[in-house]
Amino acid sequence: MTTIVIPTSTSVTESAVINAPLSTVWHLIKLNSFPEWWSALQSSESVKGVSDETDVYKWTFKDGTVVEIKQEAHSAIDHYITYSAISSNPATTYSSVISTVRLFPITSGQHQSSTFVQWSANFSGDADAGVIQDARYKRQEGLADLARKVGK
């Protein structure tokens, strides 16, 4: 039996305008702070002994999935964090993913003093359409959670 593979984009980007100043939102965009606002996450714990030069966190999701996340880049000047998943239990159906959360201050117009947040993911070529749709949904949910957190 032949399996039909449907070609799909291996990247996803979701964005939202968050009704809070960039300084308020940026404070929450750290790997250990994601559970403070993302309802899918139960906890984030620093993994010690991996490397003195690398930040690795164990994210435990509420569904029981445990993913080790490695911080690849972080800029307090350009307001972004990039991270990759280095292991997952249960295992993923794709080889790799790298994600970036990037913030931009909105400086004029009706959303002045708000923050534009963009959350992207780039998957390896073996990610299928279901993985991409799931990533899209999780980012939409996460951005809505972030908006609720800073809206209080």
Structural summary, described in words:
- Pfam families: Polyketide_cyc2.
- InterPro entries: Polyketide_cyclase/dehydratase, START-like_dom_sf.
- This is Bet v I/Major latex protein domain-containing protein.
- It comes from Arthrobotrys oligospora (strain ATCC 24927 / CBS 115.81 / DSM 1491).
- With 152 residues, this protein is of the alpha+beta class.
- The chain has a single domain, classed as 2-Layer Sandwich (Alpha-D-Glucose-1,6-Bisphosphate, Chain A, domain 4), CATH 3.30.530.20.
- Helix content is 18%, strand content 38%.
- The protein is built from 2 helices and 7 strands.
- The longest helix has 22 residues.
Query: Over all CA atoms, what is the radius of gyration?
Result: 16 Å
* Low-confidence regions: none
**Outline type:** globular
Structural class: alpha+beta
InterPro entries: Polyketide_cyclase/dehydratase (IPR019587), START-like_dom_sf (IPR023393)
Protein name: Bet v I/Major latex protein domain-containing protein
Pfam families: Polyketide_cyc2
Summarize it.
18% of the residues lie in helices and 38% in strands. The chain has helices at 22-26, 129-150; strands at 11-18, 41-46, 56-61, 66-75, 80-89, 97-105, 115-123.
Helix and strand arrangement:
Layout: E1 11-18, H1 22-26, E2 41-46, E3 56-61, E4 66-75, E5 80-89, E6 97-105, E7 115-123, H2 129-150
